Amino acid sequence: QVQLLESGGGLVQPGGSLRLSCTVSGSIFSINRMDWHRQAPGKERELVASITSVGITQYIGSVKGRFTISRDNAKNTVYLEMNSLKPEDTAVYYCNADIMIRRYQSYSKYWGQGTQVTVSS
Hints:
Blueprint (H helix, E strand, L loop, with lengths): L2 E5 L2 E3 L5 E8 L4 E10 L6 E6 L5 E3 L7 E6 L4 E6 L8 E10 L7 E4 L3 E5 L2
Parallel strand pairs: 2-11
Antiparallel strand pairs: 1-3, 3-8, 4-5, 4-9, 5-6, 7-8, 9-10, 9-11
């Protein structure tokens, strides 16, 4: 059974940093794109950053220059380094991955359970 296990959330003061991790566990053949999304209270979930299997990255404008997405393909893990955090970054952060379970099958999206990030003094 495929699972995405997230860690690294918590409470941090404005201007602080956190590093989120998300590891894919289970028997799989391949991982394509991996994303981080977030959902703040009363708001829709939004895509924050994405990274392809060869390392091409994209970010939403509000986190450019502050957040860095990276991945370790050998560990099936994606990271989100978050610096200069602001109160408006407060949200539940979810990882998402396009995964092929067996060779020649299509890719399917899998989600992590979410990890809370709270930025407050």
